[in-house]
Design goal:
The complex is a heterodimer of chains A (109) and B (117). By secondary structure, chain A is mostly beta strands. Helix content of chain A is 0%, strand content 50%. The chains are: A mainly beta (109), B mainly beta (117).
């Protein structure tokens, strides 16, 4: 099983600042198979990024994703108040087909 | 745009069977997508349960495989989840979602299921 480890567990920033969230895979993961989701309290996850760097429909361009080996990064260039939420990475691969990271909580400083 | 809606009992007794249905609207369940169930225990992260294709082909998370059945009803444009021998550890918000593949681009709002006597 491929384990995804997200860091930091909690990130405290102010609106307007840049956020960098990390997701490290325990084994090689194709960039095509890595996605990022945003989840707000009481809501379902929302797809942000797929294929490591492609934005989903309707996602603002302040959200970007990148990959380097087994390390994946979600960057929010300038935080808006509505961006404070939980963020999960997810991979598609060997059994189980889909696994998620444990999440990063992005909170207002 | 496809929309998904979960339904089912909110309370299940220990050792019983959890049964949920996901209604698909705005599109056909016979499309090229796979259809998944994902759960989220209180205060924790996301766990993929399994998926089904309209042909009836399924894939399950090995950690739950012995207790899970996912089925599809094309006539009703819906798919279902059954999880048997439930315990308190199965208490969670259960989501249905569509895979396109490799990631899940549409999610239902989720339904809370509590396992308690």
């Amino acid at each position: 099983e491929i384990v995804l480890t997200q860091s930091p567990g909690t990130l405290s920033l102010s609106p307007g600042e840049r956020a960098t969230l990390s997701c490290r895979a325990s084994q090689s993961v194709s960039s095509s198979y890595l996605a990022w989701y945003q989840q707000k309290p009481g809501q379902a996850p929302r797809l942000l990024i797929y294929g490591a760097s492609s934005r989903a429909t309707g996602i603002p361009d302040r959200f970007s994703g990148s990959a380097s080996g087994t390390d994946f990064t979600l960057t929010i260039s300038r935080l808006e108040p509505e961006d404070f939420a939980m963020y999960y990475c997810q991979q598609y691969g060997p059994s189980p087909l889909y696994t998620f990271g444990q999440g990063t909580k992005l909170e207002i400083k | 745009q496809v929309q998904l809606q979960e339904s089912g009992p909110g309370l299940v007794k220990p050792s019983g069977t959890l049964s949920l249905t996901c209604a698909v609207s705005g599109g056909s369940i016979s499309s090229t997508n796979w259809w998944s169930w994902v759960r989220q225990p209180p205060g924790t992260g996301l766990e993929w349960i399994g998926e089904i294709y309209h042909s009836g082909s399924t894939n399950y998370n090995p950690s739950l495989k012995s207790r899970v059945t996912i089925s599809v009803d094309k006539s009703k444009n819906q798919f279902s989840l059954k999880l048997n021998s439930v315990t308190a550890a199965d208490t969670a918000v259960y989501y249905c979602a569509t895979n396109v593949p490799y990631y899940m681009d549409v999610w239902g709002k989720g339904t809370t299921v509590t396992v308690s006597s």
